[in-house]
Structures are given as C-alpha cells and as structure tokens.
C-alpha cells in the first residue's frame, strides 16, 4: 500500500517584528497626504470598483508615512504619490511581457530625463512628470540623479524578470538575490530619504562601502520579508519569482523549511544593518548629521515595512492582525 503525503495547508511566519527593535513612528501629515495621493492616482483613470477597493486596502499612504515620518507635507505628498505609482508599476509589470516592460520603461525614463519637454499620450507620462516636477525644486542634484539611475536599474531588472517568467525559469538563489535588489524598487525609495529630509550628501559619502552596505541590508530585509509575506498570494497564481520558490527549488525544501531559511536570512540582514551602523566613519559635523538622518531613514523603512505588511490587505486580505498575532498563514488554493 502506497502512502501519499498530504500537501501542506499552512505555514508559520518567522517572528521578524520582535527581531526588529527600531521605533515605529507615523508622519503627522499622513491623513491629508494619503487622501490627496489617492485622489491623484484615481484622477483620469476609469478604475473598476474592485481596483479602487484594492488601492484603499493597499494603504500605501500608511507605509509612506511610517517610512518618512519626519518629512514635511509637500515632500510626504510626493513620496506618497511615488509609492502609489510604484505599486501601480509593479502590478503592470506582473502582467507584462518583455516588450511591454520596454515600452513602459521608455515612457517613464524619458519623462524623468525630460520632465519639461517629453510628451507621450500614455497616462504614465503625465503621472511621472507630475510628481517628479514637484520633487525637483528641493531635491539635491545627487538625490535626483540617484533616483533616475535606480529607476533605470529597476526597469532593467523587471525586463530580465519578464524574460524568466516567459521561459518558466526559476533562477538560482545568488542570481535571484542580485536581481531582486533592483526589482524591489527600494533603491529609488532610498533616494527619496535624501529628498524627504532635505539632505545634500556628497557622492563620495553615499558611495562609501559602509553606506552602500547599510542600504543593501535594508533592501534585503524589506525585499526578502516581502517575499515571505507575499508568497501565499503568489503561489496561488503560480508565480515563481519569489525567494521562497527559489529556495524550495534549489535546496529541495518544503514550504516551512524554505520560509524558515529565508526568515533566518532576514534576521541576519537586520543584524548586518546594526553592525554596519556602528562602523560609519566621520566626515565632519554637518555631513555626519545628514548621514545619521539618512541611516535613520533606512531603519524607518525596515520597521515601517514590517508592520505595514500586516495592515495592508495585499498579502493577508482582511486577516493581517490575526496573522501578525499567531504567525500562521493558511495557504490559498491554486487558481486556474
């Protein structure tokens, strides 16, 4: 008599919230910025009721307000608009082939490089120029350049991801991690930390190995934890561009062991961030103050993204609070 192993119906999340002891704060302008940003996103788009409900449940304004808690209202509003816009791009790229990603990248990057001259009938042209022209007056030249450069990296990586998807390729873990650091969209958000806090940090400081390592550790935590939280939704759609799927495939692990494996990497990324924070060199009082604010902004992103993941309906529908308390996730059935 053969015994067929039952497929898992649930898995347990790692306790990342307890491992992160950074203070969670909320920007005092969050309600106004959130409301205005959603109106901005809805303007000129015939979204279905279902799509509008998903955007309300996304709570991108809450995420932004926890990740940029000290930003003034104009800066927070730009960051909120970009966050809604970034999730919009992420949703578009999920359904796109390589030709589609190229055409979107072309519109967005031209809009950023030529915000006063370039015109396209695409709605993304208007949206991109609108938030970027509001960012330009107070953003430092370095922050603006880093923002555009990292948006370019984002589209290059999304293009590779679209090719892998089309071929049904599951990359090895090392390749996936390298690609995911750009598909996450975190890097332009790090440039917005400079903008939101009115920082003007010299390029040689931003390019210092310790500052780069801090940004990478924050990116890894936000991205890898997101892969854990989003795995249930993605596996139900058959999407394998997720670290859990990659680890299961490469290490021949079941879901729970893969989740534990990635959870341990997440905890190590927080530890790596804290270790590097103690190794920041000095560049003099003015720069040191700005660097401390920037690194604090990375910490805000780490703690803010962890807590937001249970408040949004994007990953756990309406049961986020219960999942946060029990850490038990019931697997969704695979959709046809």
Automatic annotation (TrEMBL):
Q: Which SUPFAM superfamilies match?
A: Terpenoid synthases
EC numbers listed for it are 4.2.3.-
EC top class named in words? lyase
Q: Any keyword Hydrolase?
A: no
> What are its cofactors?
Mg(2+)
- Pfam families in the record, alphabetically? Terpene_syn_C_2 (PF19086)
* GO terms assigned for molecular function: metal ion binding; terpene synthase activity
> Can the keyword Metal-binding be found in this entry's annotation?
yes
Ordered alphabetically, the record's keywords are: Lyase, Magnesium, Metal-binding
The record's annotation in InterPro entries points to: Isoprenoid_synthase_dom_sf, Terpene_cyclase-like_2
Name its GO BP terms in alphabetical order.
Answer: isoprenoid biosynthetic process
Signal peptide start and end residues: none
Q: Which family does it belong to?
A: Belongs to the terpene synthase family.
PANTHER family named in the record: BETA-PINACENE SYNTHASE-RELATED, TERPENE SYNTHASE
Q: What name goes with this protein?
A: Terpene synthase
Gene source species: Suillus subaureus
């Amino acid at each position: 008599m053969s015994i067929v192993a039952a497929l898992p119906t649930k898995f347990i999340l790692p306790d990342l919230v307890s491992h992160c002891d950074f203070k969670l704060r909320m920007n005092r302008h969050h309600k106004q910025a959130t409301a205005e940003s959603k109106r901005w996103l809805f303007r000129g788009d015939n979204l279905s009721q279902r799509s509008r409900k998903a955007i309300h449940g996304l709570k991108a304004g809450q995420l932004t307000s926890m990740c940029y808690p000290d930003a003034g209202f104009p800066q927070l509003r730009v960051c909120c608009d970009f966050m809604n816009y970034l999730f919009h791009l992420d949703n578009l790229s999920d359904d796109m082939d390589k030709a589609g990603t190229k055409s979107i990248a072309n519109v967005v990057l031209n809009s950023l490089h030529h915000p006063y001259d370039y015109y396209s009938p695409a709605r993304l042209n208007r949206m991109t120029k609108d938030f970027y022209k509001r960012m330009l007056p107070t953003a430092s030249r370095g922050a603006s350049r880093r923002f555009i450069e990292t948006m370019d990296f984002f589209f290059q990586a999304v293009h590779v991801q679209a090719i892998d998807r089309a071929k049904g390729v599951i990359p090895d873990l090392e390749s996936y991690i390298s690609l995911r650091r750009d598909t996450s969209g975190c890097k332009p958000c790090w440039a917005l930390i400079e903008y939101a806090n009115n920082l003007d940090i010299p390029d040689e400081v931003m390019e210092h190995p310790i500052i780069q390592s801090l940004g990478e550790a924050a990116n890894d935590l936000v991205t890898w934890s997101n892969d854990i939280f989003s795995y249930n939704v993605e596996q139900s759609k058959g999407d394998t561009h997720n670290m859990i799927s990659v680890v299961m495939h490469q290490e021949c692990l079941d879901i729970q062991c893969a989740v534990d494996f990635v959870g341990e990497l997440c905890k190590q990324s927080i530890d790596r961030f804290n270790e590097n924070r103690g190794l920041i060199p000095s560049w003099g009082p003015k720069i040191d103050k700005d660097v401390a604010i920037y690194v604090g902004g990375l910490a805000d992103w780490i703690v803010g993204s962890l807590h937001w993941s249970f408040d949004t309906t994007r990953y756990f529908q309406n049961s986020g609070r219960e999942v946060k308390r029990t850490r038990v996730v019931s697997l969704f059935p695979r959709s046809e």
